[in-house]
Amino acid sequence: MITIGQLARYVGVSIKTVRVYHDKGLLPEPARDASGYRRYGANDAIDLIKIRTLAEAGVPLARIRELKSAPDEELQRALREIDDELTARIRGLRATQGRLRRLAAGRLASLPAEVGTHLERLARWGFTPRWVDLQRDLWILVFATHPDQAITLFRDQSEILADPALRRLFLDYDRAHDLDADDPRVDDLARRIAQATRERYGPDAPPELDAASEIPILIQGTVNASSPAWRRIDTLIRAQLNV
What we know:
By secondary structure, this protein is mainly alpha-helical. It has helices at residues 4-11, 15-23, 42-56, 61-68, 72-104, 113-125, 129-145, 147-162, 164-175, 184-201, 215-225, 228-241. It has 2 domains: 4-103, Multidrug-efflux Transporter Regulator, Chain: A, Domain 2 (Orthogonal Bundle), CATH 1.10.1660.10; 113-241, no CATH class. Helix 10 (184-201) packs across helix 12 (228-241).
C-alpha cells in the first residue's frame, strides 16, 4: 500500500490531479488507515494510469467517468474512435509542423506548380512586380484556407487572363493603382470590368469561396487598402453589378 504522493509520482501526475479525479468520481478515494493516511493499492495505480492515458488523449473527464462503467464492447468502440481522432490530430499537427518549417525557411506556404507558372507568366505579360507579389500572397492565403475550392478559382482567373482582351483589363487595373480616385479613367475602367463580368458569367455569379468564409472580405479589403483608386473601382463595380 502506498501514499497519495507515491501513487502520483509512480503514475506521473500531481497530487492535485489525483484529488481532482477523486472529486470528479473517477478514482475511488480509499479510507484512511489508523495513522490517518489514505493508502492506495495496485488496482488504484492501474485505474489512475487508464484515467491519465484517456485524459492525455483529450477525452473529457465526464466522458472518462462514463467509459469506466461502460460494457467492454462499448469501451472498445469508444477507444477505437478516440484512436481515430488522435490520428486526425496527429495528421493536423504534422501539417502545422510542415508550415512552421516552411515559415522558418522563408517560405510561407507551398503553391501548386501551375500557380507558380502562372505567376511567372504575369511578369512576362507586363504586370508590375507589385501585382505579381500581391497575387502570390493572396493565392497563398486562398490555398491555405480553402484548398478544395482554390484550384477552381485559380483556373477561372487563369482562363480569363489567357484572353488578350480580358488580360488588358487586368493590366489596366494593375496600372490604375497610382491614379487619383477621382480620375475619369477609374470610372471608365470600372464600367469595362463590370461589362466584361456580365458577358463572361451572364446571370450566374463568378465562382467564389464558401459564403460563410470571411476570406473574400479579407482579400478584397487587402486589395482596396493598397490603393484609393482600387477601392473606388471595387465600389463602382459592385454598384453596377448590384452585388
